[in-house]
Amino acid sequence: MTTSDAVRELVLDQDGVRLAVDGETATVTLANPAKRNAQSPALWRTLAQAGRSLPGSVRVVVLRAEGKSFSAGLDRQAFTPEGFDGEPSFLDLARGSDAELDAAIAEYQDAFTWWRRRDLITVAAVQGHAIGAGFQLALACDLRVVARDVQFAMRETSLGLVPDLTGTHPLVSLVGYARALEICATGRFVHAEEAERTGLANLVVEPDELDAAVTDLTGALLAAPRDAVIETKALLQGAAGRSPSEQYVAERAAQARRLRDLAGIGD
Question: Whole-prediction pTM value?
Answer without folding.
Answer: 0.93
